[in-house]
Amino acid sequence: QALDIARVGTRSLSDSQVALLKPQQISSLTYREFSRLGPAQVVHLTPSQLRSIPNNWWFTRISTETRAALNANQVRSLDINRLGILGLTEQQVSFLDADPLASVTFHEFHELPPAQIPLLTAAQIASIPDHWWFALWSEEAHEMLGPEQIRALRVDAVGIRELQPHQVNALSTSQVQQLSLEQFRYLTAEKVTELTPSQISSIPTHWWFTRFPESVRARLTPVQTQALNVAQIGIGKLTSSQIGFLSPSQVRSLPQTEFRYLTAEQAVWLTPEQLAGIDKLMWFTNMSESARASLQPEQIRALDVSLVTIDLLATDQVEHLSAEQITALAYPKFRYLN
After folding, report:
1. Using the 8-state DSSP alphabet, how is residue 157 labeled?
2. Is the pLDDT of residue 2 over 70?
3. What percent of the chain lies above the pLDDT cut of 70?
4. pLDDT at 4 over 70
5. Concatenated DSSP letters of 159-215
6. CA distance 176 to 156
7. CA 297/CA 309 separation, integer angstroms
8. Which pLDDT belongs to residue 241?
9. Are 275 and 297 a contacting pair, CB within 8 Å?
């Protein structure tokens, strides 16, 4: 205890001898010697000594137990910009206020207690580079993000899967319009209407379309509905109002399995080629009676009457059958002829 530690250091001392150092001696140590201290001694380090630690490597040379003994004032003296927070306990991280937290990088955000997430700046939130780093956060931490922070997220890289519905509703229109196909399913009914026609047209299959919750699909606008690739997606998951928004070109792209959803007004848009492609009676009988009754002469003459029974046609439609169609009829169907 009589040694001038500032001059001789602790290198030649044993652990038991270092444990005998007085507070005055400890306050003269350099950061290179902090690793020799025990939990009961580290509390004697001054703020200036702690600020002198140059990087996380020197900080984490101090034992975990000893670091954990640093008190609130000492933790606030650390240069977080150089050290980071990975060497601190959760309780010690909670001692930090907005100023030191402004130095924390995205690599360490997942180490923050949920209560401190609101202290992160918009610039820090915007620095999160991808979904992997964002997904490291706890669910509770994600839930603490406020509207301003939500609007700072790079959703094109991070995604929105971890957000709560009220947080999704805080997204800006420009953020929604940066989302990729995989993220559409996490949108709320309030935000789905902000997807562009180009985004909607990128939905490639029925499977992807059914990832939307029913309440969200039902909010698609007429313009969005007309952007759907219905040839691949189908129209069975649309509301009756949305089906009414379909364009003639969309109807003309439908496979036979979707004819059953069409209204009488839309059935007349089916091409002769589409009707000629009906290869099972069920696809014709599944059409509504009014839709079948609206079929025009050219459409009637495209039907394969060896498969599509003419008893499902109106009397005036039977009159439009071609001679070739009539010669293809089986005798039980003769009774429907004029």
Report:
1. H
2. no
3. 98
4. no
5. -STTS-HHHHTTS-HHHHTT--GGGGGG--TTTGGGS-HHHHHT--SHHHHTTS-HH
6. 9
7. 16
8. 96
9. no
